[in-house]
Amino acid sequence: MKTKHSLSIFQILSITASALILSLLLTSPVMAQEGYRLLVDRNFGFSAGSQIRGDFTLKISGDQDHLASVTFLLDGEEMATITEAPFRFRFNTGSYPEGVHELSARLTLKDGSTITLSPRRFEFASSQAEKEAIFKIIVPLLGVVLLLSLIGGGVQMLALRGKPAGRYAPGQARDYGVAGGAICPKCQRPTPLHLWSINLAVGRLDRCENCGQFSLMRRQPLDVLRAAEAAELQAEREALPAKAKSEEEKLRELLDQSRFHE
């Protein structure tokens, strides 16, 4: 009785061990297949969440040493079969109908087994849908930029309120800093631009440091600004002799008048 009982326990242990070994053998291929994912990379075009339009590349992430081939699928239908690494397929959404599609891949391993990856859903967007999506992104950004510009312009106006103009003498070198400089359309003299001026795309609404007036100014290259400084200095020098001569003429007229009265 003891012998039969001990053999029964031995048989149970053998069956259990055999089942465990068999389970490991059956699950090891599955463990080797884990970690594969389908990736969709944009080469050129539009991508916003699940909406895509343009040129893209499908590829597989994971250990590719076990792969024999990869068949890329669109709605379950074959797009292309790649038989060597890197397992990638480049496609353009314009070559397929617009609308919602499922992208997937069927992997064939070197041991002959296959894996079908879970599909990823994308909408191949139309040109109109692309424009609408871009519009939804750009408009809020432009609103934020405009708001910041208005706040900056208001700060600048408050800071410059009551500040006298005529900061620079003719020909005096200006420090244009990071914002650069412009030629004032009111007085035609070079003036530095302020960082807090309002950027209106076609120019900056800023205050001239010479005449003190606000106007739309366009940034100019440094060599143009330096040339303008030199030009106003030359004009100032040319005007000085004329003024001196005019004073001499006035003095002579006074002398002549005094002699006449004598």
Structure description:
This protein has 262 residues and is an alpha+beta fold. It has two domains: 37-125, Immunoglobulin-like (Sandwich), CATH 2.60.40.10; 145-242, no CATH class. Helices cover 40% and strands 30% of the residues. It contains three helices and 14 strands. It has helices spanning 2-33, 127-160, 222-261; strands at 37-48, 51-61, 67-74, 77-82, 88-92, 99-109, 114-116, 120-124, 181-183, 190-192, 198-199, 204-207, 214-217, 219-220. The strands form three sheets. Strands 1, 2, 3, 4, 5, 6, 7 and 8 form an eight-stranded mixed beta sheet that branches. A three-stranded antiparallel beta sheet has the order 10-9-14, covered by helices on one side. A three-stranded antiparallel beta sheet has the order 11-12-13. Residues 1-7 and 22-33 have low confidence and may be disordered.
| Distinct helical segment count | 3
Report the sheet with the most strands, covering strand number, pairing sense and barrel closure: 8 strands, mixed
The secondary-structure element order is HEEEEEEEEHEEEEEEH
Proportion in β-strands: 25-35%
- Quick one: overall form? rod-shaped
Please estimate the helix content. 40-55%
Mean pLDDT: 79
Low-confidence stretches: 1-7, 22-33
Roughly how many Å is the radius of gyration?
A: 41 Å
| SSE class | alpha+beta
Question: How many strand units?
Answer: 14
Distance between the ends: 166 Å
What oligomeric state is this?
A: single chain
**How many domain regions?**
2
